[in-house]
Amino acid sequence: MTLTGFPASAPATVRLLLALLIATLLSGCGYNEFQSKDEATKAAWGEVVNQYQRRADLIPNLVNTVKGYASHERETLEAVTRARAAATSFQITPEVLNDPKAFQKFQQVQGELSSALSRLMAVSEKYPDLKADTSFRDLQSQLEGTENRITVARQRYIAAVQEYNVQVRSFPTNLTAMMFGYKTKPSFTVENEKSISTAPTVNFGK
Q1: pLDDT tens digits for 106-152?
Q2: Structurally, how many domains does the chain consist of?
Q3: Domain holding 96: CATH number?
Q4: Own/partner pairs, 25-28, CB within 8 angstroms, 24+ separation
């Protein structure tokens, strides 16, 4: 037997025809689409992770800047630092996309960081000098832009997963999914989307 599964003694023309037949069958049952959509979900997820990491990278400077004007807001500052540590220490592996519990944990730690940032922003409103600080305003602008990119990245991931999951569940491609081990992927919940669209509030220009 050859690596393709055909007898080595079979004529080359027969082997070619069999290979073309198998390729046609796989294409017709959605195998190639599964490959494409699976890669699309991974790419969309990678962008989600990148944007969350970008946010995490902004936080140390943000905390230090706020501390310079509101050092006695220790509890709030420490809450942000702890939430960031929990979010950045979460091990993001490819398995997260196929493990609803791990995906839920990812949502949880990122949601807790969003909540901590919201509290920090609310506290910062009480300090006019902080709001006028050039470094703080620059960080605020970067954070606001990053939050918007997070929302866009999450929406693209949701759309990619929805397309993939529909194919996993639909007939006859669900037979291909069972044959090759393709399973539905977890996504962000509607409730989670509502919370991410409103937190944190970082507009200090008013």
Answers
A1: 999 999 999 999 999 999 999 999 999 999 999 999 999 999 999 99
A2: 1
A3: 1.20.1440.20
A4: 26/176
